[in-house]
Specification:
The chain is of the alpha+beta class. About 55% of the residues lie in helices and about 15% in strands. The longest helix is centred in the C-terminal third of the chain and has 40 residues. The radius of gyration is 33 Å and the shape is extended.
């Protein structure tokens, strides 16, 4: 049995500037619940009821996707009937607690109960079609007699402004009875995602402490050193000539490096590798500071929210069911348009054939690239050529076959017929236009 439901009050929103709002969103994401999932329904009002009798209560229960459920049924007081009422009081809030994977795939049933049960009105909605985890929706549900309700009805969505700005116009017989409510689904991250978030929070906290101490010390030295040691400015006297000599010597060093590059190539590669590692470490440290996190957040937040609203994103971040396969993850991030697929296909084939740069050791690279290539080709062209991903796998595993452009072949299979048909049509149009021009010219000559 699922845990007993609990009631909680919701706070009214407070206007805030965009930066504060973004920060609060990030904090809310980082502090998502880690126990069971929680479905919170705030009953707003019931409109266009059949008669003047006020329902005794509103009942909410859920049925799991496998047909189990109907348990964990809870009730609230009577809704505000036939008029607008947006009071979010505890008495009008229902909370169901259960495993998030069960709630996400469940069908929720709302029932307006009367003293005479024959007059009960019900409506249902499927959660995964209506909500995302940690998402809120304002809904208008059509109600029907309980004895006549079969299956689930798709809810009509509405915004808060629409609910508050429109009344029930016309006679009661003209409109079907509706229930207006605010629905929110809350739930935990997957264990590995929660572990990564906790690790990142600990790292960010340590970086903030070190940054505050270092910046404070450096700022103090920068302010106090000129005051306490006035002679420090004379250090610029030897520094200027040295800098001038260094700038003048750069072209000479560059020319010598070009001439001797075959001898210095290993050293250059080592220096570039060390510079790349230091740059990556420095960038990681900077983007771990408050300023760096703010910059990343402003850039990455829209993409993250868009990804989080997809089915694959929900399954990756939250514990809503089986984890997505690598191919499903690739499908969520790879482009679907003609140009985007062409660019990705060319890059996949380019990386696959790059092993020819190192004739013997490159074949070892193919062993690591082969499964990645299979996943990418499958995500791109499974709907067109389901067997192409196995061709890509064998192409990378077998020696001396990396030149085969398997990913680009999938692009030709998907877009080639339409592309060539369009070209043929344009050629035909050009021929017809030329024929008409010749006929018109001959008519003028005659």
């Amino acid at each position: 049995m699922a845990p007993e439901p609990s009631f909680s009050a919701s706070a009214s929103p407070i206007p805030m500037d965009p930066l504060t709002a973004t920060t609060k969103v990030a904090k809310a994401i980082m502090s998502a619940p880690t126990g069971n999932g929680k479905l919170v329904a705030t009953i707003l009002s019931a409109y266009d009821l059949p008669d003047d009798e006020v329902p005794e209560s509103v009942t909410m229960s859920y049925t799991e996707g496998n047909g189990r459920g109907g348990y964990n049924e809870i009730s609230t007081g009577p809704p505000a009937a036939k008029h607008r009422d947006h009071a979010n009081s505890v008495a009008n809030q229902l909370v169901l607690s259960a495993p998030l994977s069960a709630l996400f795939e469940s069908t929720v049933k709302f029932t307006l109960t009367y003293a005479n049960s024959a007059k009960n009105l019900t409506s249902t909605c499927t959660i995964h079609r209506t909500l995302r985890v940690n998402d809120t929706q304002w809904l208008i549900l059509n109600l029907e007699p309980e004895t006549a309700s079969h299956g689930s009805r798709a809810p009509a969505r509405s915004s808060a402004s629409k609910i508050s700005g429109h009344g029930s116009s016309g006679s009661l017989g003209d409109q079907p009875p509706t229930l207006r409510l605010k629905l929110r689904l809350e739930g935990p991250y997957r264990p590995e995602v929660a572990a990564v978030i906790n690790l990142m929070n600990g790292w960010f906290g340590a970086v903030d402490v070190v940054t505050d101490t270092t910046v404070g010390t450096a700022t103090g030295l920068a302010k106090d050193l000129p005051k306490n040691f006035p002679a420090a400015k004379y250090l610029l006297v030897p520094a200027v000539p040295l800098a001038t000599v260094a700038v003048a010597a750069l072209p000479i060093l560059g020319g010598a490096l070009i001439i001797c590059i075959p001898f210095f190539l290993p050293v250059v590669l080592i220096v570039l590798a060390v510079a790349a590692v230091l740059g990556a470490v420095g960038s990681g440290v900077y983007f771990s500071t408050r300023d760096g996190r703010t910059r990343v957040q402003h850039i990455a937040e829209p993409s993250y929210q868009t990804f989080l609203m997809t089915k694959t994103g929900q399954r990756i971040i939250y514990d809503v069911g089986p984890r997505p396969s690598p191919q499903a993850l690739a499908e969520a991030v790879l482009p679907t348009d003609m140009i985007g697929k062409l660019v990705v296909s060319l890059l996949v084939d380019l990386v696959g054939s790059a092993s020819y740069l190192i004739p013997i050791a490159g074949e070892g690279f193919d062993l690591a690239w082969a499964p990645i290539s299979m996943v990418l080709v499958g995500a791109l062209y499974d709907g067109v050529m389901p067997s192409l991903k196995y061709v890509a796998l064998m192409e990378e595993l077998l020696p001396f076959t990396d030149w085969i452009p398997s990913a680009t072949a999938g692009w030709v299979k998907e877009f080639g017929p339409g592309f060539f048909d369009e070209a043929k049509r344009k050629v035909g149009d050009a021929k017809r236009a030329g024929r008409r021009e010749r006929e018109a010219l001959q008519t003028l000559i005659e």
